[in-house]
Amino acid sequence: MALLQNAGTLLGKELRTELRSRELVTTTFVFILMVVVLFSFTFDPTSAESRRFGPGLLWIAFLFAASIMLQPSFLREQTNDTLSALRLAVSDPFAIFLAKLAANTIFLLLTEVLLLPIFAVLYNVAIWRVAPQLLLVLFAGSVGVSVAGTAISAISSQARMRELLLPLLLLPLLTPVLIASTEATAALLADDPVLRWDWLRFLFAFDVVFLTALWLFGEYLLEE
Amino acid sequence: MSAALAPLKLRFENVEKRYGSLLALRRLSLQIEHGQAVVLVGRNGSGKTTLLRIAAGLIRPSSGRVILSDEAEGPRARVGFVAHQTMLYDELTAEENLFLFARLHGIRKPAPRVEELLGEAGLRERRASLVRTFSRGMRQRLTIARALLEQPSLLLLDEPGTGLDVPGLLWLAGTLRRLRDAGCALVMSLHGQSELSALATRAIRLEAGAVAADSAVTGAVEPVLQVAGA
């Protein structure tokens, strides 16, 4: 109970600070927008090509954007040593991770939802008829990205060359999420849309495995 | 704040800390009792900050043991820590910072405690200002207020006078004196003689990660502080 209360309190802090600065969501949204627009202008894909390549492009853009978004997650706790204050205050350090990954998932989902209509227009892809299923895939994929990304962010924030380390560790680790999310999205954007439960189950399994690992070993990631 | 606190002991048993090839603490053994005000002195790099961070549970020793006598209650339940850095969120207001940490500490009705500490720290009128707009001294007052939220039985302070003007130092000295008299164990690192060193009931001089002098052994506090050039 204390774990959830602490996580809720910290999530409130994460949302409040982001609402004031709007740094993460704005930067990430602009980055994804640039990637999607530049690809659209470069390849000028037809509707059929968009359905074929669009999902992969979309998730690669999300992944690169996530690596930008996740970088400051623990790094900004170093500025005033607030991470030490949090470690002294919470009874279970998993609360810190839970709050961070919830906040990161919310920020990532927000940028994805903002971008989807732009993607649909630029790539001439009909997303409205499968919007609820697409949101489910985005949610499962985003949780996977956030869980793994939050853990790597904690590791890299204490390392030298931290800006380079996070994408180097994160992107290979997220390859399974990229493949599963892309396949599930592609199936939804096909001529006969279908929700691929096999890929969704894979994504949820990835989420559960990494969440469990974070719960078990997270404390060690926060140590100096 | 002057209510008597449950007694707490801090014991270091042969504690060593290595950072690669550097030995920051060498087989350090000491015991700190409740109600003691221990001043740590020593040159830069002598191990004061490492000792305090190990005592706070933020760093794991490479070998040896650190024992807090109230571990049944949760090892860090009643330990307050004032570090070099402010440990505050610049993007939150003074009040929001205190409420955040009060809730994390499990204080059920934090408003009266937050109100009391804002008043004591002289920050009541700036309660709604973002911390990033504060001067260094105001930040330090708020940092100390944050560390006092839970009425600690052990308070660790790493150069707590940093940035404080004379009224700020007097406020801090008065607050620490009340805590000490109520049974709180104080361990603070200091660099110079100030209003704070007058609080010491014990002084320890560290050299190269080991205890070079301890007034608990030598008998008087003042010589240990002076030998260090503090």
State the main characteristics:
heterodimer, A: 224 residues, mainly alpha, 85% helix, globular, B: 230 residues, alpha/beta, six-stranded mixed β-sheet, three-stranded antiparallel β-sheet, 7 helices, 9 strands
Average per-residue pLDDT of chain B, rounded, comes to 87
Query: What string gives the helices and strands of chain B in order?
Result: EEEHEEHHHEHEEEHH
Broad structural category of chain A: mainly alpha
* Radius of gyration of chain B, CA atoms, in whole angstroms: 17 Å
Number of helices of chain B: 7
The description of the largest β-sheet of chain B is: 6 strands, mixed
Mean pLDDT of chain A, as a whole number?
91
* General form of chain A: globular
Radius of gyration of chain A: 18 Å
Largest sheet of chain A: none
Q: What kind of oligomer do you see?
A: heterodimer
Low-confidence stretches of chain B: none
Anisotropy-based shape of chain B: globular
Share of residues in strands of chain A? under 5%
Poorly predicted spans of chain A? none
Which percent range fits the helix content of chain A? over 70%
Fraction of residues in H or I helices of chain B:
25-40%
Number of E strands of chain A: 0
Structural class of chain B: alpha/beta
- Listing every helix as H and every strand as E from the N terminus to the C terminus, the arrangement of chain A reads HHHHHHHHH
